[in-house]
Design brief:
Layout lengths: L5 E5 H22 L5 E5 L1 H5 L3 H7 L5 E4 L2 H9 L6 E3 L8 H7 L3 E4 L2 H9 L6 E6 L11 H16 L3 E7 L12 H11 L7 E4 L1 H6 L12 E3 L25 E13 L4 E2 L5 E2 L4 E6 L16 E4 L2 E6 L7 E4 L11 E5 L6 H7 L4 H7 L6 E4 L1
Parallel strand pairs: 1-18, 2-3, 2-9, 3-4, 4-5, 5-6, 6-7, 7-8, 8-9
Antiparallel strand pairs: 1-10, 10-13, 10-17, 11-12, 13-16, 14-15, 14-17, 15-16
Length: 376
C-alpha cells in the first residue's frame, strides 16, 4: 500500500476562480462603459504546482496563457491550447526563437540583446511581443529613459515584417500593499505615452482584484491582465482572504494519522524539543514532512484538520512526519484523515502565514514524491 499522502487538484475550482476574475472585470467595465480586459491566465512553475495539463483544461475560457518555460509552452500546444501564449521572461538564446516561431508564442522583450536576436532571426511568421518597462520594481524591463528607444526598435522590426503586434507592459511591486500602484502607473504613463497603439498589460493578481479600473480597455487599445495566484484559490494579500472574493482552493493536500502517542505532561515532542506538553496529551503522527513540501518552519499552532476537526501542529516538522494535537478530536486514531490544506482544511494562506511564508511557495513546493490526482 502506498504511503497515505496525496494532493488533488480540482479542475472545476480552476474554472470557478477564472470565472470570478472574469466577472469582476466585466462588471467594472460595464459600470464605466468600457471594454473589459482580456485575461492571460498565468500558469508558470507547472501551474503553481497544479499541473500544466490541468491548467489548460481549467482555464480553457481564458483569452491567453502566460508562463516562463518554453517546454511548458510546448506542452500547452500539445494539450490542444490554440490561443495566445505569453513568455513572461521572453526567450534566452537565438535557438529559442525556433520554438517561438514554430509554436506561435508571444514574447516579452526586456533587453536590447533580445531585440538584437530578433533582428537577425530567420522566422516563418511575425512574432508578437510585449516590450517591458521597469517602472520601479527594478527586476526586468527597460529603464524609463531607455524605453522609447527600445519600443522604437521593436516598431522598426514590425515595419520590416519581423514582429507582429508590439505591446507595452510592466509589473507592479506593491499592488498588494499600502503603497499601491499609483507611482509605478505614473511612470508607465510618462514612459509609454504617445507611443504607437498596441496591447497593454500591467495588472497581476493583486492589481486585477484591487484595481480593476486600470485594466479597462477602449476602442483603440486592448488591455490584458495577468492573474496568477488568485486563479488557484489563494490570496495575493496578507489581510484579505481568497474566500472573501469567492475563490475556491484548487489544490488539497491530504494524509492520515499513522501513529498515536499518549504523552505525559512535561514531555518533549519532536526534534529539538521545541514543544513540551503542559498536560497529558494524545498526539497524532501524520505522514507528511518537509520532504513532501510541507514547510519545515511551520511551528506549534499551525492549523491542521483531523477527521474534520480543526486542531494544531505540535513541535518541529520532520522530513517525513509531523505531529498534531488530538485533544480536539478525541475519537481520531490511526487511519483518521488529515487535511493539511485545501478543501475541508485550513487555507494554504493560513498555513503559509504560520510558517512565515506565502501560499505561492507552498503550492509550488509540493514534492514529486507526493502522488497527484485530478478532481472534477
Amino acid at each position: 500500500m502506498p504511503r497515505p499522502i496525496s494532493a488533488s487538484v480540482s479542475v472545476s475550482a480552476l474554472r470557478h476562480n477564472l470565472a470570478v476574475v472574469r466577472r469582476l472585470l466585466d462588471q467594472d467595465a460595464e459600470r464605466a462603459g468600457a471594454q473589459p480586459a482580456s485575461i492571460w491566465a498565468v500558469i508558470k512553475a507547472n501551474a503553481y504546482g497544479h499541473g500544466i495539463e490541468r491548467a489548460v483544461a481549467g482555464f480553457s475560457a481564458a483569452q491567453g496563457l502566460a508562463m516562463l518555460d518554453l517546454d511548458e509552452a510546448v506542452r500547452c500546444r500539445e494539450a490542444g491550447w490554440g490561443g495566445p501564449i505569453l513568455l513572461l521572461e521572453g526567450f534566452f538564446q537565438p535557438a529559442d526563437l525556433d520554438l517561438v516561431d514554430r509554436y506561435h508564442l508571444t514574447s516579452t522583450v526586456h533587453t536590447h540583446e533580445q531585440l538584437d536576436m530578433l533582428a537577425t532571426a530567420r522566422l516563418s511568421r511575425r512574432v508578437d511581443v510585449m516590450v517591458k518597462l521597469n517602472s520601479g520594481m527594478n527586476r526586468l524591463g527597460f529603464a524609463p529613459h531607455d524605453y522609447a528607444q527600445a519600443h522604437a526598435r521593436a516598431v522598426q522590426l514590425h515595419a520590416k515584417g519581423v514582429l507582429g503586434s508590439v505591446g507595452r507592459m510592466t509589473h507592479f511591486a506593491c499592488a498588494d500593499g499600502p503603497e499601491g500602484v499609483a507611482g509605478q502607473l505614473e511612470v508607465f504613463g510618462r514612459a509609454t505615452g504617445g507611443l504607437a497603439n498596441g496591447p497593454v498589460s500591467v495588472c497581476n493578481s493583486a492589481a486585477t482584484l484591487r484595481y480593476p479600473e486600470i485594466a479597462r480597455g477602449d476602442a483603440g487599445t486592448q488591455h490584458w491582465v495577468r492573474p496568477g495566484i488568485c486563479l488557484y484559490g489563494a490570496s495575493p494579500f496578507d489581510d484579505v482572504s481568497a474566500a472573501s472574493y469567492g475563490l475556491r482552493p484548487a489544490m488539497s493536500l491530504r494524509s492520515e494519522i499513522i501513529g498515536v502517542q499518549n504523552v505525559p505532561a512535561g514531555q518533549a515532542i519532536g526534534y529539538g524539543a521545541t514543544y513540551r506538553t503542559e498536560q497529558a496529551m494524545r498526539v497524532g503522527v501524520v505522514a507528511c514532512g518537509y520532504a513532501d513540501g510541507y514547510p519545515r518552519h511551520a511551528g506549534t499552532g499551525t492549523p491542521i484538520t483531523v477527521a474534520g476537526v480543526p486542531t494544531r501542529l505540535l513541535g518541529r516538522v520532520s522530513m517525513d512526519m509531523l505531529m498534531v494535537d488530538l485533544g480536539p478530536a478525541p475519537s481520531a486514531g490511526v487511519g483518521a484523515p488529515v487535511a493539511l490544506w485545501g478543501e475541508g482544511g485550513p487555507s494554504v494562506d493560513d498555513v503559509a502565514r504560520a510558517a512565515g511564508t506565502i501560499g505561492y511557495e507552498l503550492l509550488c513546493a509540493v514534492a514529486a514524491r507526493v502522488p497527484q490526482a485530478t478532481r472534477p
